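LAB NOTEBOOK - FOLDING QUEUE
OPERATOR: T.R.
BATCH SIZE: 2
PURPOSE: Compare the predicted structure-token outputs for two unrelated chains run back to back under identical settings.
PRIORITY: normal
REVIEWER: second-year student, initials M.K.

ITEM 1
FIELD SEQUENCE / FIELD STRUCTURE:
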Amino acid sequence: MEVCYQLPVLPLDRPVPKHVLSRRGAISFSSSSSLFGAPDPRQLSQRRGAISYDSSDQTALYIRMLGDVRVRSQVGFEPERRSSHPYLCIDFRTLHTRLGCGSTAASSAPERRVHRLLSFQRYLHSSRLLRGLPQQIPLHILDEDYTGQARCMLEKVGNWNFDIFLFDRLTNGNGLITLTFHLLNQYGLVELFQLDMVKLWRFLVMVQEDYHSDNPYHNAVHAADVTQAMYCYLQEPMLAKYLTSYDILLGLVAAATHDLDHPGVNQPFLIKTDHYLATLYRNTSVLENHHWKSAVGLLRETGLFSHLPVEDSLNMERELGSLILATDISRQNEYLSRFRTHLDQDNLCLSNASHRHFILQMALKCADICNPCRPWELSKQWSEKVTEEFFQQGDIEKKHKLEVSPLCDREKNTVGNIQIGFMTYVAEPLFAEWARFSDTRLSQTMLGHMGLNKASWGGLQQEQTSVSEEAEPSTAGTDTEDVAARREGNTATAAGGTSSKEIPQGNRES
């Protein structure tokens, strides 16, 4: 007998239980006093920070491809040095495990197993469901009893002025999960691809958890912002007319995972400190490769696409990698030149799958660095966050007697200089070409915001210059082009902060 069920609902008016966010087994429901019951210990897979595996699952061991997996001793974890630099040790994040008491043992009963799959709302109707009565309940992202601002904001998710900071607060820090699920459901992709609701929810929870909340910029809020921007681009007439459901699914998943497990430092930092990821990927698109492989690892671990033909699943993983790798800022000119050539020759044919994929790459690149194109109130916040991330990397470099990377010295650079250089040499050329491709109100709005933001930073810069004119000239001010290249070189998406703590070995950039 088939039982219809809905993904567990996380109420927005209360903190998310830590054991719900832990990635040990699927989210479950029990009749205990708490909304979500504890996972069955027999189903737990061993996890170490962003690296997970099951001793009997050779596929999971293969997927990670990071050399991070180590056998867990009975007494716990011991730090293991993975590079020549003494402070770059693995960060084994402690996961909260709440093994059930009393009620978990009773979960062996058939009816309990059924209830574990149900959300609270579905559980209330379980008697009707089990009697086989038709129950037409639409999928809901938010609790049915919650009719606040978060739901209202989702109704305007295609608005370019969408405030992702506010939305993340309204969802108790679950903005990436809620937004991504809403978009997948809005497009009808959950039903079309027959995605298992529990697997999908678990995948999104794990994705959000793998972003480092202590990064000022490269965190889950940035990923949600890029996903929302990607949605705006997918709605553009030039794309909406030709994109298939497969393209849309791929684009949204790529946006949500494009910076997965970002360490808050850039690729040059990983290379000069002999980080094991730099060695693993031979100093080439180090962070982007790690983001991609981490995303594939979560897809396979949750089995989100395991019901699809193997060939289709593998092809989706490859194309996901192609999109994420395109966010490598060091390849900016390569993609931009190719884009210009297509536009000059007017030979883009979006009925061609390869051309559609290329446009998805360009769309993700735009979404990744669209912060200067947002309204000033939002753009300014992102600018300050990405700059703080750079400065935190510089603080680490100073602390350990390393050469301070460009843009990372808080004593020689300012937010204004970094932003003006980035807009001039990175953002403006890209969005000018995007406007040629899709000359719409949105494209003109983005260019307009960027012009105003650039002028605003210029005005603030003048004020600062008049005050510190006698001080030592700013390195960023004398080489604006280098500033721009470094800002995104430091992180392929104008972000990736890391605190002055030890760097977790298993992060990435983009």
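ITEM 2
FIELD SEQUENCE / FIELD STRUCTURE:
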Amino acid sequence: MADLGKKYCVNCLADVTNLRLRCTDCPDIELCPECFSAGAEIGNHRRWHGYQQVDGGRFSLWGPEAEGGWTSREEQSLLDAIEQYGFGNWEDMAAHVGASRTPQEVMEHYVTMYIHGNLGKACIPDNIPNRVTDHTCPSGGPLSPSLTTPLPPLDISLAEQQQLGYMPLRDDYEIEYDQDAEKLISGLSVNYDDEDVEIEMKRAHVDMYVRKLRERQRRKNIARDYNLVPVFLGRDKKDKEKEKPGITKEEKEQRIRLRGLCQFMAHREFEDFFENIHKERVLRAKVRELQRYRRNGITRLEESAEYEAARHKREKRKENKSVVTSKRGKEGKDGEFAAIENLTGFELLSDREKVLCNSLNLSPARYLTVKTIIIKDHLQKRQGIPAKSRLPSYLDKVLKKRILTFLTESGWISRDTS
């Protein structure tokens, strides 16, 4: 009676009670794994027919020598978990396999059996002739969850992680750039009765989604390369205190103006570019200095030191002369203009006009009247309008000539008119 509950392979009559493969197209066709893998055909059964696995989930896929006693059901859950959660998320995979497995056990079993075991050696050989370099996995691992170079997690505290919504194990944020990008593909499904136009539309949606992911990753790389996260958190204040003292205000302003180029250059490239601009500015200033020496007849660098010393002395003399002139001007205001400073229109005169009126013994009001008439006649003559000069009777030829000469030298009227 005990044999009535057993199942046998219809091809080799082996005991398949623990594990058998049943044909979904032919009734009562159940094969052992060896006959199924060999493609056995019996009666109307063909090797391409559909099949399903029938077992209690208690046998070991790797044999009795495998460590841990992993059953076939746990193996299947492990493969489903790594497809769903990705390589490296051992905690989520352990929860998917079952409470009896820890993340460490899941990691060791998968790495031992599926990567470094016989299956991994058969699928991932060490040396392959003419093998193309896999740039999507720079760390050398056989499975990489990302199409880009993985970046190390940010070195920030737990409070700062909560402030940013940052997940260090995934190197993601709770709110990413273009947060609604996943809506492009969330409703897509593959149907065998889709027309060509519908398939192309779905491919376009996938392409748009991939571009958004690349842009998201590009922004992350820029933020990481230029160290923008510490700036956002306020850590850059200490760095500003340690900033080089030789940086001028113009260089800081130029760096701000060139900030838009950061998204097209790496940080090292941008620093080299800015350094080259600074070198160019220094070279241009040196060229202008050498051209100035050449215009002043200096052809050797040894002569430039003597020229600079002489120029410094000249500028010093001019500075001392201007100081003396300003002192004399202040003294003149106290005593020289005493005769006209209380008259009407004195505050409307410039310093030179005050000296002129004082020397001509002419009141400011009369001078302003004569100045207005002369300038008005000058403008009419330039416009081709005939004008008769009606100067006041108190203005003689000497006064008129002195005033005309002063206005001409000051640029109020042209020389040909005067």
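REVIEWER COMMENT (ITEM 2): The mean pLDDT is 79.
FOLLOW-UP: none requested
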